[in-house]
Amino acid sequence: FIWMRRPFYKEHNAVFEIKKDVSQLEFFVPEKWELGTTKFQESENGEFLLLVKGFAPPYTTHYLSYSIEKIENLIKVSFKESVDGYHRNFRHKFKLRLPQHLKGHVKFNDYLKNSED
Question: Residue 57 pLDDT > 80, yes or no?
Answer without folding.
Answer: yes
